[in-house]
């Protein structure tokens, strides 16, 4: 693949890596790979964060979609709980690693050492990892009660691949096996 950055640099899915190879500084607030489209991939990014939380057995995972006109500083909150400080840190590490693999870097993190409430800010969404006691005390779901609560399954559901009309036209129809109907004794085609 040819590089767009000039001779001697390799093309990469992450423009941050290309900038580093060229010796250019990454500007402040630069968070996203050039290959990722904001709107199309935001739900995928949130679902990756959810998967990381699930991989580390986070408790009571919730996704809050904040209203656009509510003055919210982000689009989504991912909220979950851990049972002890080590699990809370492990969840935070898993989220960070999984999103880093997508080329998404955390812009601000808080509370990792204390591990009572870890906040990972990815600009378009924020991941909150609480201890059970802190989650009850701060109760973000009540504070942002105007936000619509999404089920993790809503974001994790992958759309079914659609076949193009060209693929349908070139694919020959397959003959279904014939079977005898138990009631009539007649042979009929089985539906696929």
Explain this structure:
- By secondary structure, the chain is of the alpha+beta class.
- It has a domain at 45-156: Beta Polymerase, domain 2 (2-Layer Sandwich).
- Helices cover 34% and strands 20% of the residues.
- It contains seven helices and eight strands, in the order ααββαβββααβααββ.
Question: Which short descriptors sum up this protein?
Answer:
192 residues, Beta Polymerase, domain 2, two-stranded antiparallel sheet
CATH level 1 name of the domain at 45-156: Alpha Beta
Radius of gyration, in Å, reads 24 Å
Indicate the proportion of strand residues.
15-25%
CA-based shape: globular
Largest sheet: 6 strands, mixed
The largest sheet has its strands arranged as 3-4-5-2-1-6
Would you tell me which CATH topology of the domain at 45-156 applies? Beta Polymerase, domain 2
> What structural class do helix, strand and pairing data support?
alpha+beta
Regarding quaternary structure, what we see is: single chain
Number of helices: 7
Short description:
With 192 residues, this protein is α+β, with helices and mostly antiparallel strands. It has helices at residues 15-22, 38-55, 85-101, 132-138, 140-143, 152-156, 165-170; strands at 59-65, 76-82, 108-110, 117-121, 125-131, 148-150, 178-180, 187-189.
Write the layout of secondary structure elements.
Blueprint: H1 15-22, H2 38-55, E1 59-65, E2 76-82, H3 85-101, E3 108-110, E4 117-121, E5 125-131, H4 132-138, H5 140-143, E6 148-150, H6 152-156, H7 165-170, E7 178-180, E8 187-189
Parallel strand pairs: 2-5
Antiparallel strand pairs: 1-2, 1-6, 3-4, 4-5, 7-8
Helix pairs in contact: 2-3
